[in-house]
Amino acid sequence: MRAEDAVAPESVPDNSRVSEAGAGWECRTRGSFQELMPERVSGFSWRHPVVLWRSRNDVIAKLFGDPSNGIRRRCVAALAERGTRAGFTMHRRDESFSFLLLGDTGEGDRSQYAVVPPALQVGADTDFMVIASDVIYPSGEAADYPEKFFRPYKDYPGPIYAVPGNHDWYDGLRGFLRVFCDLDMECEPDPWRGPLGAVARLLWRRPGPVDEKALAAARERYRGAPGQRAVQPGPYWMIDTPALRIVGIDTGITGGLDRDQGAWLREVSAGPKPKLLITGKPLYVDDSLRPGRIEGGGTVDAIVKDPAHNYVAAIGGDIHNYQRYPVRVGDRTVQYLVSGGGGAFMHATHTIPRVRVTGEADFRCYPLRGDSLSRYSKLYGRVLRLPKLFELTPQEATEVIRYRLGIEPGRGYGGEDPSPSSGGEGMPAGPKTAAPSLPARSAEGVPSRRARFVAALLGVPRGERRRPGMARLPVRKVPQRFRSEMADWDRPPFFKSFLRVDVTGAELRIRCYAATGCGDQELRPPCEDEVTVPLR
């Protein structure tokens, strides 16, 4: 039974655009994912100094230069010498097929396991799964794969492929290559030049050991069925089908491609067949373009936008939420998606400004900005022990988002019903957007002073009326390795998400499903967004 047949049309579950209950704020039953977890889960917290220290290669790569290109070239050369598939290509003969896509999965804790039941419910009949970025946190070690990869997805019946993220590269990609490509090779980075090169070499984190017996035992115990076994040709690859070419690229630590991978990408992108790009770094995110540089010249986005290549969509992980930007390119539209909600901490969406790239009406995100602001306000209130000051209800947070950004939010209150089909997170606010029944506002339609203060501190942009010099807490500007410690929680709603992608000879259909951690939403996961792209 396919996902669209699982729920009768008249009983489609509410999503976050319909109600607070649909967003997971009113959990009535305990999530079954808790029974899937091991009895003892190793403590994983971004507050722990050891976790941050194991992730230090991110800082070194940005300060002294990213060595991923050189390491990748040597590893790919070893794969080619071994006899990997020509062109790093996997072939499928079926014109119609489906797959799941999960981004940034591998924390190994409750937030990762919360995604498993709804993903299995929606994707039990899919042909394969793709993990887009950061299979293993914090540093991609092979030793973490048994509990953070093999065990969580033991019940998924199909093969799993992946493109690496920056955290997978903190182990020099050794764990990733061993598990997905069946290659155990420790590739040293190229020597850093300059007077500080010695400092970089001293601080650079070397790959951890590979316990072959432990990996083999985990694979056999959890994912040992013939249909679950797969070896992909490299860290970047292509799945060629009669209707669609799926291209997965490896963006290293800082988002770039080496010249060899760039040449390969241009080669497999040629021709009129429709194409879907899967990448460890999104190209459009937070209302900005991050084109993805290619060593020697050019960008990934230029390849995607070239009409001769016929890309219809590009999906990237790394940012831990869902966003979609339908970008007009000449006489066609390319769907740019962020899908990094597969299990790690949540990146805020309330810090996304009113969208200019596509226009706010065409933009989609999950969680909605108001839900994101409410979740962060509760988190800061608990951590700082100031709940009465910080905590905003979803209703209060939604109204202050409306006020500060000048948009119509995705979920209405007080008789308002912003149709999901008529706008994205919100339409630009017009003269009749005030909702007089909201308690967070004064009679003039202005949110309470406390709500405005909290929104400003937590990084909600000001839209056209932004005032300079307003203090903010570290939500958007501080690097991920620091703000992540304030953005991780283990209680529903988790606001995780995953994609189901269906391909026929005529169209590509992409649906974003929510994983809140609530038991009543595991069997009927809310669909938060859907787009259908013609392929002919």
TrEMBL record:
Region annotation (Disordered) ranges: 1-20, 411-446
Signal peptide, first to last residue: none
Pfam families assigned to the protein according to its UniProt record, in alphabetical order: Metallophos
Gene3D superfamilies, per database record: 3.60.21.10
Listed SUPFAM superfamilies: Metallo-dependent phosphatases
Domain of life (superkingdom): Bacteria
Coiled-coil residues: none
Ranges where the Calcineurin-like phosphoesterase domain occurs: 98-182
Protein's UniProt name: Metallophosphoesterase
Organism from which the protein derives: Actinomadura vinacea
